[in-house]
Amino acid sequence: MKFSHRFGFDPSRQAGPIVEDAPDWLRKEYLLRIVDKLTYIDLDSRQKNEENRPLGVKQLNERLSIESKREMQNDDWDSWTCIDGLHATVMAGTWYQFYDCVEVVGEALREAEPRYRSDDEASEIFNASREHERFKYPAYRDAVNALFDKHNVSWKLNGQGNLENALPKGLSNRIDALEEKLTDEFTPARVHFAKARAYVLGTHKDPENSIKESISALESVCRVFYPKSSSLGKALGQMRSDGTAPARLITAFERFYEYANDEPGVRHGDRYAPAAQLLDAELSLHLAVALIRYVMETKKNNTDTHSS
């Protein structure tokens, strides 16, 4: 965060994190530092895209205008004024439409990535640097998150292109790393985990469903290792029997499972209204991350030990 914001000298900067707001100065910096470096003037044979940039200004503006319900003008299609038109679209929307635009630009970059596939292959063959990496979604995500972190914006882009509440960097990295590991037979667990994450960190909060999906992700992983188990409770019982983890640690797993089963509105209907808070859901997500990583690494280490 810059000097004038850290010490509250800038009257245009609100106190505390930026959540339901998108100040003009933030939008301008986003456009100048990030978007303008990814775009070229398209739909005009006189204009050359010499750097092979991924996003055409006019087509991107059309896409963002649809998202922000802005009607494009004749000037937006003119090569001399189209950049101003794109800027006007991003500047004119409501605060939440600005963040919609941030996600849409990321989506457009992900769609454009196949055009660089042949360059990737050539770079691998000749051991050359990949100049176009700056035009791909991961570089965009890092640039947006750095900008938002600089200005204390409480949103960050995740690996799937969705904005969610920012977490401490170390924890965020562990969550991202876990999601990348949930492939192949763990794909169902990945689906549950993505939902748990979205319900607590995304824009549509639902703590009960987040807790349910966190437990379901853990249950799905455990049942991969114990396919004969019909529930998480039975899988934990088998883990206790075969010594996969210390008994007291298994007990902690079981208490987490019992909490989810007993909490109204999480895994079962109840005569009492749901009362789970966002902090409960966030804690459950973090517990699920830790427990899933523990189970996967423990089972992997046991397998390696027995095979060697």
Strand content: under 5%
**Percent range for helical residues?**
55-70%
Number of helices: 13
Arithmetic mean of pLDDT: 87
Number of DSSP E strands: 4
Using only C-alpha atoms, the radius of gyration works out to: 24 Å
Largest sheet: 2 strands, parallel
Strands of the biggest beta sheet: in what spatial order? 1-2
Strand/helix succession = HHEEHHHHHEEHHHHHH
Which structural class is indicated by helix and strand composition? mainly alpha
Low-pLDDT residue spans: none
Rough shape? elongated
The number of domains: 2
Through-space gap between termini: 51 Å
Question: Any key phrases for this structure?
Answer:
308 residues; two-stranded antiparallel sheet; mainly alpha; elongated; 13 helices
In brief:
The chain is mainly α and 308 residues long. It is built from 13 helices and 4 strands.
Describe the structure.
- The protein starts with a helix and ends with a helix.
- It is mainly α and 308 residues long.
- Helix 9 (187-201) runs antiparallel to helix 10.
- Strands 1-2 form a two-stranded parallel ribbon. A two-stranded antiparallel ribbon has the order 3-4.
- The longest helix is centred in the C-terminal third of the chain and has 30 residues, at 278-307.
- The protein has two domains: 19-155, no CATH class; 165-307.
- The mean pLDDT is 87.
- Helices cover 59% and strands 3% of the residues.
- The chain is elongated.
